[in-house]
Amino acid sequence: MSQGTTNLDDITIIMPSRFNPRADQRIREAFAATIVDAPDPAAISPDVLKATRGLAAWLSPAWIPLIDALPNLEIIANFGVGYDTASTLHAIGKDVVVTHTPSVLDEEVADTAMALLLNATRELYQAEKWLREGRWHNEGNYRLTPLTLRERTVGIYGLGRIGKAIARRIEAFGLPIHYHNRKRDESVAYPWHASLEDLARAVDTLIVVVPGTPETARTIDATILQMLGPDGVLVNIGRGTTVDEPALIAALSDGTIAAAGLDVFEDEPYVPAELMAMDNVCLLPHVGSASVRTRALMGDLVADNLVSWFTRGETITAVPEAGHLAKRKID
Length: 331
Prior knowledge:
Blueprint: E1 12-16, H1 21-30, E2 32-36, H2 46-51, E3 52-57, H3 64-68, E4 75-78, H4 85-93, E5 97-99, H5 106-122, H6 124-132, H7 135-139, E6 154-157, H8 161-172, E7 177-180, H9 196-202, E8 205-208, H10 222-228, E9 233-236, H11 245-254, E10 259-262, H12 273-276, E11 281-283, H13 292-312
Parallel strand pairs: 1-2, 1-3, 3-4, 4-5, 6-7, 6-8, 8-9, 9-10, 10-11
Helix pairs in contact: 1-13, 5-8, 9-10
C-alpha cells in the first residue's frame, strides 16, 4: 500500500455518477474525483487506473473487474450498512480495506420496520385507499382487520444495532421479544434461541434484520414460514436474499402465514408479479434509510472514512471482515 498523505487533492478517488449527493459533494471537494457511469476498466484511462487509490461505491459483483484493474487501490468506501459479500471479500483478499455506514441509519430503518409491521397487520395503506377512492362515503366503514399487534410475540433475526433499535420500539408497544443471533447477547434479557428454527417456533411475528451473506441466504424458507403459523407475519428490512421468495409467495397464497411487510427483495428493483398482486403484503422500494437527513449522514460517513484513511491511516467504520486492515502505518 502507498504511504499516507494529507495532500488529499492529489489522491484519485473513483465514484459512480448519480451517487449520493452528499458523498459526491464531499469527495469532489476533497479529492481528485473521477466519475464513471459504469465500473468498466476499459472505459477508464490507464493513467487514472494506475493513480486511483480509493473507490466510493454501492459495491456489487459488477465492481470486481475494476477492483482488479486498480494496482494501487487501498480503500473502498461502500455506501450503506449492508454490503455485497462477493465483491467485499474479493477486495479484502487483495488487502483493500472496505468500509460501510453503520449506526447513522439505525433509527430510521427501525422506524421503517415498525411501519411495515403496522401496515401488514392493520392494513393502513389499504384503509387509506378505501378513503381516497370515496368508498368510505359510498360503501361505509373499512373492514375490521383480521390481524392485530395485540398478543403477538415478536422474534428478531439479527439483534445487532438495528435489531436493538427495533426491539426498543417493540417493547414500547408492549410485546414480548425473542431473538436469534449466532451467539447470545449478554447485554439484553430477551430470550435467545440458538437456532432460527427454535426462534420461529416460539413466535408468530418474525422481523429479519440480518445482512445478505452466504450463511443467511434463503434461510427464511418454507419450513420457517410454516412454524410461524396461520396468523404469522414476516417483516424483512435486512436483505432480500435472506428470504426464499417462491416459498414466501406460496405461504402468503395458501394461508401458511397471514401477511408480510417487505422493504427488500432478491432481485431489486424487480419484484415478483405474484407479490405485487397480493393484498396481504406491504411492499416498499428499499426505503428503510431513505430520508434526506439519514442519507446525508451516510454520505458524510463515506467521505469521512476516505479522509480518515488518507490523513490518519485508519478507517472509522471498516466492515468486520476487514478489521485486520483498518489501520496502517503512515509517514
